[in-house]
């Protein structure tokens, strides 16, 4: 691509394209980088600069970018049946097959799926499902949902309301029946407490919130196994067992938002398996098609599905593209690659422990307060003072600077608060993980 074309593209983009989660004023002044191709775990901009993609796109291209089987499956499907809806007693072959394939990879007790295009829509769908469930059980007051501060469940009004991102809440009026409890972020909020004691205390806020709101009014608790967009918040070991106990003892549904954690990221097919809890509903999206086509949905556990499927009456909810044939074809190809190549098990045994071990070598760096992570996801918390854990800056400027240094060194990572976040593709080699860690090291040196 010639320089001239790049300049023209950048100008068109700057002048006419409103980007997600972007300062429009700033972007229209500075513009951005245009990406033009990708191969394996590398992406290339329009000037052919290469970047190691330490974020798997946006936590979605878990198998990297060179997956001809997925592309071929979509291509074939587009030629055969590019679209038909799944309303009015209609279905299509890939949607039916994908539903069955998903049931095979999700934990026992999940035998039904509702398809959406994205994680946000899937979480909107969760609200509709839990409200319908309790209505059918003749508990119409059970409408309140509890989420977590700093959780991320998407960007539609309902999904953002479930989430606890303060800066997002400030910009819109959310739905009023969602309440939030604290996140299990020991490094930032645990002070000098014992990690597991902190985990228990934060989990017990759920019990207190249910009591405060009245169990007869609360429908569900939603949480990510590991908070991803919030900064890879790894819960203390004590956290999930306590949440499970509370949900078992109380009549509320547990929704596991696995949009990031699902499909192998944490070392198992789903994060709830890594942390050994049993949700009633599982949200998925992103890596289900390796990010190649938009597809999301809710895996509905038998407890809920049995009520929904044995009562008369239409579920008043759906999307034009629910179960889109091309997206489901991409999903089927993705799952079959993962199964044939034993991707989840192999990653958990080889490259994931290597990534975690190599990243821990950054712990000694003077501005690193904590390296945390599991499976193929990690965060490096930047600090001014290692012992006191004093913040590196009052705003996120240092982490943003560090991220930009990483990009200048040919590595795509993300800055969240004071943390550098990485979630590289599961098909990365040891050499490529070495490259990632070296480039990150250089970015830390430049920030120190
Ligand atoms: N849930 C979680 C845990 C996410 O991380 C995201 C996106 O990052 C979403 C939901 C929203 O998904 P989408 O952007 O596909 O709407």
Automatic annotation (TrEMBL):
One function term, GO molecular function aspect: transaminase activity
UniProt KW Nucleotide-binding keyword: no
Pfam family, one: Aminotran_3
Organism superkingdom: Bacteria
Keywords: Aminotransferase, Pyridoxal phosphate, Transferase
UniProt-listed InterPro entries: Aminotrans_3 (IPR005814), Aminotrans_3_PPA_site (IPR049704), PyrdxlP-dep_Trfase (IPR015424), PyrdxlP-dep_Trfase_major (IPR015421), PyrdxlP-dep_Trfase_small (IPR015422)
Cofactor: pyridoxal 5'-phosphate
Listed CDD domains: OAT_like
Top-rank EC class of the record's enzyme: transferase
Entry EC number(s): 2.6.1.113
Family of this protein: Belongs to the class-III pyridoxal-phosphate-dependent aminotransferase family.
Entry protein name: Putrescine--pyruvate aminotransferase
Lineage of the organism: Bacteria, Pseudomonadati, Pseudomonadota, Gammaproteobacteria, Cellvibrionales
